[in-house]
Amino acid sequence: MTDVVVVGSGPNGLAAAVILARAGLDVTVLEGQPTPGGGVRTLPLSTEKVPESAGLLRDVCAAVPAAAPTSPFFAEFNLEARGVELITPEVSYAQPLDGGRAGVAYRDLGRTVERLGTDGQRWRRLLGPLTAYAPEVAAISLSDKRSLPDGHPVRLARAGAAFGVSTGLLARWWGDGYWRTEEARALIGGVAAHTISPMPSLAAAGTASYLGSLAHTTQGWPLVRGGIGAITRALVADLEAHGGRVITDHPVRSPKDLLPARVHLLDTHARVAADLLAEPYRSRLAGLPLGGGVCKVDFVLRGPVPWADPEVRRAGTVHVGGSLAQMRRAEAEVAAGRHAEAPMVLVSDPAQHDPTRLVPDAGLDLRGPTTVGGPQGDLRPVWTYAHVPTGSTLDVRAAVEQQIERFAPGFRDLVVDALVTPASRMADHNAAYPGGDIAGGMVSMWRMVARPRLARDPYAVAPGVYLCSQSAPPGPGVHGMAGLHAARRVLRAEFGVRQMPSVRPY
User: Fold this and answer.
1) CA distance 366 to 20
2) Residues 6+ apart with CB under 8 A from 236
């Protein structure tokens, strides 16, 4: 019998496995897919028109690990020392608007302030203090919501105060009056929409405050050269170097699929984890409401997305939803179980910043126009998520194309083909995404604390069983912190180890 079996090899599961293996335990990770990584994988992109042999790569789920650089786990793990190259676009994110306008969030706070004009100093007052204490804001946001995070008490207090002010302002309609321009109003609203939930709300405001502050740090919202799967490869390499192992093609759908172990950690959605437990533990996990869904559309283009505002082309992430009012209407429709006519869409064109993502189309019979701003014939992947009702079976490619074309005239002319994954099929690629819920459950301020339910220890879900996924605090994101928090409890409660091992490279 092994010491620990981890079910699921997403960043949280691998973070927990790395910590426990470094503590000297025998650790096995079970992964249902042919490759490890869960929501952090990079695989070949092929469509009806573009064969796998073309060499295009797609980030299967996550593409921009905005939380990773300031995550306490990854800060110590040190991805760059392990050969993972984080690319830092000069523009962290952008929000195109009708009429060729756009809100642009540069990594340079001062430049963002200057571009926002009338709202520049308001932006500085709101996000400047958060950016100044970004590591502390991250520590608070990524905590277990039950204990004080590590850090200097004064800096943590100042960060907490700034976070509270910003969240309180953005959480209610009165926050709209703080801004004078649609650019600023939509720019911060696009970040809030990451929650896939009605806006305004405390959870959406907290997300906007946290991610908005990271946008103006040194590393901003980074991309990963060659694809986000490099993060998974680094985690697996460290795990194996310390005696752990990953077994792929081993789906765990019922208790009989588990390997015997002293302790089991579940890096999967609470609803999926519930199927592995008996009552009363099953009901306690199954009660976590599902969050909003996404339809993934991976485009193959013959050139960069031709955004009307040239500055948008420099962004690593683009929020396509229009004005704040338009985004709110779209998110309200999704929350009500309806498809928005003009959905909220997140877009990333990684080849704009990473030339390794460009592939010549030599030998492919692909009819199309000359590229815009790139070598003729080069193909590129363009990553998009469209917000849809949970469990949606709809192919929303047409709606996504219409939204992007609205702000990037000529986009359709560059499209070679697309691979569409409806929300109902997202779990085919990652069992932790039932119905396309990529956030591990409903995102609300209450559910950030009561996740998967209100309990003193949200990670211990049954005797010898721990939840270490996005369905536990701190919630969604590529940060590994649910894995860290669960691993700390496993070491103390199950193995009597109170000293957390270092995960620094050596």
Assistant:
1) 50
2) 9, 14, 36, 246
Max Cα–Cα distance, the chain, nearest Å: 65
Closest listed residue to residue 423, CA positions, set 402, 395, 448: 395
Q: How many structural domains are present in the chain? A: 1
Collapsed DSSP state (helix, strand, coil) of residue 202: helix
> For residues 300 and 47, is the Cβ–Cβ distance under 8 A?
yes
What contacts 10, CB < 8 A, 6 or more positions away?
A: 37, 38, 39, 40, 267, 430, 432, 469, 470
- Report the C-alpha gap between 330 and 321 in whole angstroms: 8
Name the pairing type of β-strands 359-360 and 345-348: unpaired
Dist. CA 113–CA 132, nearest whole Å: 15
Is the overall model pTM greater than 0.85, yes or no? yes
Q: Is residue 163 part of a domain?
A: no
Contact 467, 490 (CB under 8 A): no
Cα angle at 81 between 77 and 86, to 5 degrees? 90
Strands 315-320 and 91-96: parallel
Q: Domain range spanning residue 31?
A: 2-40+225-288+441-495
The answer to whether residue 464 sits within a structural domain is yes
Q: What is the pLDDT of residues 329-356, one digit of tens each?
A: 999 999 999 999 999 999 999 999 999 9
Residue 321 lies in a domain: no
Q: Calculate the alpha carbon distances from 230 to 74, 207, 366 in Å.
A: 13, 26, 30
- Say which CATH number the domain at 10 has: 3.50.50.60
Q: Which pLDDT tens digit goes with each residue over 405-461?
A: 999 999 999 999 999 999 999 999 999 999 999 999 999 999 999 999 999 999 999
Phi and psi at 64, nearest 5°, equal: -125, 100
The residue ranges of DSSP E strands in 227-366, in sequence order, are 245-247, 261-266, 293-301, 315-320, 345-348, 359-360
Question: What local confidence, expressed as pLDDT, does residue 364 receive?
Answer: 61
Neighbours of 459 (CB within 10 A): 27
Q: Are the C-beta atoms of residues 440 and 471 closer than 8 Å to each other? A: yes
